[in-house]
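WARN no homologs supplied; continuing
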Amino acid sequence: MADYFGFVSIPSDGTRTFNPYAMATKNIACPGTSGTRTIVELSMYCYSGGGTPGHARIAIYKSSDDTLVCQGSAEILVSSTSPGWDNCKHTTFTDSVGDAIASPELTVGQNYWLFMSTDSSDVLTAYDNGSSGDTYYTTGDLTNGFPASGSGLRGSEWAQVFGLRCGLYVAPSGLSIPLVQSIYRRRRI
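OK structure emitted
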């Protein structure tokens, strides 16, 4: 189960192709009441235009110092011709040199940038119309890996909002294991 933040609704104003580009969302604060939250997913609402499938990759940076928090562990082949969040979804993560990060964390209330990169004009991303500065883009293919510093990645402003989201771990609710064990033990006695 995940709690999402970013641009989580399904964009419906149009689709755009990027070849090759890196896109960044505007500053988005990590939701929650206090402490840290664990990232369990980075995903993008996209699909293949039906030609030669391309790849996509997603990363998240701290806004305060442009430091990479994590990126998807590898580029993902976007081959489905039906739009969806599962067409580019990362559930394992690495740092800028490819070392695995088991449980990347975000600080509640701190601002972050979500980035995506594609290597093909066949990867289509859905968007909603927005305001200038909702998104930034720069040319270049970062599907082989994002740099440790995001400084300079936010180039020109764009007035469209793309479907990029970050999924955060949500602890299950309900009975705790000790309570269930306690009830079971009383019945056996």
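Residues 73 and 177 are 33 Å apart (CA to CA).
OK
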